[in-house]
Amino acid sequence: MPRLSQLMVRTALVWLAIGYTFGGLVLSTKGVPLLPGLWALRSAHIHVLLVGWTVQLACGVAFWILPRLAQGERGDERPVWGCYAAINIGVSLGVLQSVFAATAGWLRWLLLLVGALYLAAAALFLRHAWPRIRPFAVGA
């Protein structure tokens, strides 16, 4: 497994642990409403698990498993590094926005930046992966 895939999968596992921690805190608040402010973590829980864990894990495995180019290489890794950075910065800003949006209303604009980072991550990964996607050859 290439180093970049290892890094993406390990970072996805860190996001998984953080996401389940957030989810556990939100769930405990539902059962015992001692700290109702923890409900602010619900949106962060979604960002972390949906993008930080699931999307990043899929990108890391896809970078590893997609067919190599004709030269036996995976191609230019810079777009995938950009994807890695955009995903993690986007998730981190999404967590900050969801936690502090109730106290600082001006942070709502941050969601646009988070969405732009997610879109950039998808475009960068697609730019790298597109030449590696080959049609299935029947009988070859």
Mean pLDDT: 89
Inertia-based shape? elongated
What share of residues is helical? 55-70%
**Spans with pLDDT under 50 lasting ≥5 residues?**
none
Oligomer: single chain
Please work out how many helical segments DSSP would assign: 4
**Percentage of residues in DSSP E strands:** under 5%
Roughly how many Å apart are the termini?
A: 26 Å
- Please state the CA-atom Rg, rounded to the nearest Å: 18 Å
Number of strands: 0
Q: Report the structural category.
A: mainly alpha
In short:
This protein has helices at residues 3-31, 41-65, 78-100, 110-129.
Report on the architecture of this protein.
It is elongated, with a radius of gyration of 18 Å. The protein has helices spanning 3-31, 41-65, 78-100, 110-129. It is 69% helix and 0% strand. Helix 1 (3-31) packs antiparallel against helix 2 (41-65), helix 2 packs antiparallel against helix 3 (78-100) and helix 3 (78-100) runs antiparallel to helix 4. It is mostly helical and 140 residues long.
Write the layout of secondary structure elements.
Elements lengths: L2 H29 L9 H25 L12 H23 L9 H20 L11
Key words describing this protein structure:
140 residues; mainly alpha
